[in-house]
Amino acid sequence: MFDRLKSRHADYFGISCDISCLVCGLPVADLSASHHSNEMSPKTAQATHDHVLCTIFAAMDISKLDQLTNLSAGFKAYLYDCDGTLADNMGAHKDTYIKVAASKGHVIEGDIIDELAGWPVIKVIEEINKKYQTSFDPQEFKDLKYKLFLEEYIEHTLPVAHVVNHLKAHAGQIKIGVVSGSGRVAVEKTLRVLGIDHLVEVMVCAGETQNGKPFPDPFLKAAELLNVDPANCLVFEDGEAGTIAAEAAGMKWVRIDQL
Q1: Buried b (16+ CB within 10 A) or exposed e, 177-212
Q2: What local confidence, expressed as pLDDT, does residue 119 receive?
Q3: Architecture of 90-155 per CATH?
């Protein structure tokens, strides 16, 4: 993995030896797969390598859009998460969970929503029931949540600018898909508000595969619809459920919130 990234980003690994690996402290230019292979899991290795690359990019004063462009070279399809990745709306989603729970006489904290970012709403509600010992009906809660979100929040959705601009810059050149743990109605409207719905070739949303994130099913379905091998797809995510799903699907990924 380290050799692959070193090769792809050779220009960046050739800069000042003052930039060091976040794990071992050695110059980034000396990174090798063999050096780290016995020290960390593949998942930790990729996360560490992403951090090293971001350290390099920051030192070179490269914009987040340019970072995404550099990291995403060589793929045939881009699969973007929606909430928190294309849309700066995770605060709104947390508010809707909290308000629906409050309307039923329960207080919940937003941290569980952050922890389960990318999960289908039904699954999030099931986890809320476990944590808070509540008995919310998942389907009823989901319907109330989406009604509140669509009526009071969605029209005010703002873009995550560097991710939306990355999608716009590559539409028509690279196949584009959106893979979300939210329902199709909400995702379609969010993309319309962001002005990018016409650029998205396929969408896979909550309930459209047997399993949602963190299982690979949604990403594999998107690759199938786009007729692209999973190994040639790059996933853009802001949550662990999405990156776990991407890895299980045999896809590389970028955490846009860690740039």
Answers
A1: bbbbbbbeebbbbbbebbebeebbebbbbbebbeeb
A2: 84
A3: Orthogonal Bundle (1.10)
Q: For the domain made up of 64-88+159-258, give the CATH fold.
A: Rossmann fold (3.40.50)
Question: Residues with Cβ < 8 Å from 169, sequence gap 6 or more?
Answer: 65, 69
- Burial pattern 218-239, b for ≥16 Cβ within 10 A else e, equals bbbbbbeebebebebbbbbbbb
Residue 58 to residues 50, 51, 55, 234: CA-CA distances in angstroms? Answer: 12, 10, 5, 22
Sequence-distant (≥ 6) Cβ neighbours of residue 137 within 8 angstroms: none
Q: For 30, which DSSP code?
A: G
Hey, where are the domains in the chain?
2-59, 64-88+159-258, 90-155
- Dump pLDDT digits (tens) for 142-155: 999 999 999 999 99
pLDDT (tens digit, 9 = 90+) per residue, 114-125?
Answer: 888 878 889 999
Task: Name the one residue in this structure whose structure tokens are 């919310």.
Answer: 136
Q: Is 159 helix (H, G, I), strand (E, B) or coil?
A: strand
pLDDT number for residue 7: 41
Place of tokens 């799903």: 245
Helix (H, G, I), strand (E, B) or coil at 203: strand
Instruction: Give the model's pLDDT for residue 244.
Output: 95
Q: Flag residues of the chain having pLDDT under 70.
A: 1-62
Per the listing, tokens 């508010």 go with 95
pLDDT score for 259 = 84
